[in-house]
Amino acid sequence: QHNTKTYQYEDYKETADWILAQTNQRPKVAIICGSGLGGLADLLEDKTVFPYESIPRFPTSTVQGHAGKLVFGKLQGRECVCMQGRFHFYEGYDMHTVTYPVRVFSLLGVETLIVTNAAGGVNEAYSVADIMLIKDHINMPGFAGQNPLCGHNDERFGVRFPCMSDAYDRRLRDLAKQTAAEQGCGSFLQEGVYCMLAGPTYETIAECRFLQTLGADALDGTPELMS
To answer: What Gene Ontology cellular component terms go with this record (predicted)?
Structure first.
């Protein structure tokens, strides 16, 4: 059962204004830390930490391993904000709630969103623990009408019909590949197509074969980019 909510611009602004009043940091980069990656936020310096439950209108994480904290700080000298834990459709949240933080980030002044997650690979050329840069995606729930952009469109957040053909910035992907090569990680860095699924069950063998034929390389359930 999904608790469908409708958010107005004023709701996002209320959350953003509260955060801006609590910290002097104004990050241009936001990082959503997926399963097992929350430790990245612990590396930030000059941290300001907000438990999700303390933030007005912010959802809360219910999945084990998702700390449920919004962490502001500096990473390699650059201000950024990290989500230690995300929200999932399978937790009972609707798509508008799952992607609520992304629009808040926009009002905070964030310009670059880095989304990470632990995903299942269906590309047989991949190995366990490979890192995959997303170059494109398949939104399976969207085929059934579960898209975070359904409903009233507020032009202050973007156009009614956004083009998704270049959603994953090529310049940032090239930078990631260059950095991986410099750090000796190029041998296990892949670039592929990510398929979003609803969860929480893992896919059957037949489903994996089907998704392979569609061109998917990795599978999970994170729709934040579409918001």
So the answer is: cytoplasm
- Is the pLDDT at 1 greater than 60? The verdict is no
Question: Would the CATH topology of 1-116 be identical to that of 118-226?
Answer: yes
CB 95 within 8 A of CB 146: yes
- Cα distances from 82 to residues 52, 70, 142, 170, 183, in angstroms, run 12, 6, 26, 22, 23
Percent of the chain with pLDDT over 70: 97
For domain 118-226, say whether CATH 3.40.50.1580 is its number: yes
176-202 pLDDT, tens per residue?
999 999 999 989 999 999 999 988 999
Classified by CATH at the fold level, domain 1-116 comes out as Rossmann fold (3.40.50)
| Phi, psi (deg, nearest 5) at residue 154 | -100, 115
Provide the 8-state DSSP code for 28: S
- Report DSSP state, residue 3: B
What are the tokens at 53? 């439950």
Q: How would you label 41-75 residue by residue, b for 16+ Cβ within 10 Å and e otherwise?
A: beebeeeebbebeebeebbebeeeebbbbbbbbeb
Our measurement of the distance from residue 159's CA atom to the centroid of its chain's CA atoms, rounded to an integer in Å, reads 20
Nearest to 96 by CA among 201, 198, 221, 8: 8
- pLDDT (tens digit per residue) in 61-118: 887 777 899 999 999 999 999 999 888 888 888 999 999 999 999 999 999 999 998 8
